[in-house]
Design a protein that fits this description.
By secondary structure, the protein is mainly alpha-helical. The chain is built from 7 helices and no strands.
Length: 124
């Protein structure tokens, strides 16, 4: 009892859930990161499930996480600007932000001047 009084009662603010009421936790109410990451699995799996059903649910969670990661990594970002004309808007739908920034600068420079081409008399 002395150990409890000496080591735990002095730091109630750190481990009591009711003391954390004012802190935003975004539905993560544990300080154990491994336990927090298993939250979705705990919601789907139950104590009395058959083993094959548990494995099926875990594979579903794993595939869902993999699909979300792949979509996030391979996704091309979209960039919209009201100042874009039709050509730049089309490019913004296809290219990444970085590529669009590089092209936009050159595109604006090319549109400042008007060019007139006349055939050279010496050219066959």
């Amino acid at each position: 009892m002395d150990y409890f009084t000496e080591n735990w009662l002095n730091c109630k603010d750190q481990w009591c859930t009711f003391k954390h009421g004012n802190i935003p936790h975004l539905a993560n109410n544990t300080n154990n990161r491994l336990e927090a990451s298993w939250g979705a699995a705990k919601d789907l799996l139950h104590r009395h499930m058959a083993m094959d059903e548990c494995i099926d649910h875990l594979l579903f969670l794993q595939q869902t996480a993999e699909d979300q990661y792949t979509a996030k990594v391979k996704r091309v970002g979209f960039r919209y600007s009201q100042n874009y004309d039709e050509e730049m808007s089309m490019l913004a739908k296809l290219a990444t932000h970085h590529a669009c920034n590089l092209v936009e600068e050159q595109y604006l420079v090319s549109g400042r001047e008007t060019y007139d081409t006349t055939p050279d008399e010496n050219t066959p």
